Amino acid sequence: MTDLIPQRLALLIDIDNGSAAAIDGVLAELERYGRCDIRLGFGDYEHTSAAWREACIRCAIELRHYPVLAMGSKNAADIALVIAAMDLLHGGGVDGFAIVSSDTDFVRLSTRIREAGLPVYGFGPWGTSERFRKACARFLFTENLMPDTPAHPAIIGRRPLQEPRDARNEIRDAIARLHPGAGGWVGVEDLDRELVRHAPDFDPRTYGKRTLLELLKAQRRLTVSQYPVGHWRVRLMSGASKVGGI
Predict the structure, then answer these.
(1) Which CATH topology does 8-145 take?
(2) pLDDT digits over 73-97, tens only?
């Protein structure tokens, strides 16, 4: 989570490259960052799935229709999304943006918004390009935001996108950046910020854990301890600073 907590967010959805099943999770996630007062969806209404049409009505998302009229016009909705974002950016009425898409075309839009000093929260599937993920201040995989239903069991009950051990190098490197000396303690909250700062798409849910603390406890060669006042801290065990040591 970033240090900047905006008050008013604009949610811009690329209907053709987003998942309707994750929209409730997206909105719930955005409540951590501010009020999502502006909700716009862009796509070809006639070819939009029934699930998206239902989601737009239920979640008060304004669906802006941009039909694919001829070969080569498939980017009409993307262009409209960018124009809307620029209008909102220069209008000065929002404090941050959320973009739901897996499209690499929005990399420059994201960086332009961030150049203006506003955060961008991206949402997309596991296959979303690394370029777009890193262009956002925070990026969440929509697979981690699916509702708890028989088709999509709770995150702890479903197979994670990656195994907990796959996070070891990122965790080790982040601890080393915060405390270069061997064996030094690092606050878990500080580690959380450092992980996201370096990798905007870092999320314990990707590894089947609800929180960073749970993920840390699942790692080998880490010592996790609680301060007397309740906060948690972590450090590398001796020899764990080597590659593959956790």
Answers:
(1) Rossmann fold (3.40.50)
(2) 568 889 999 999 999 999 999 999 9
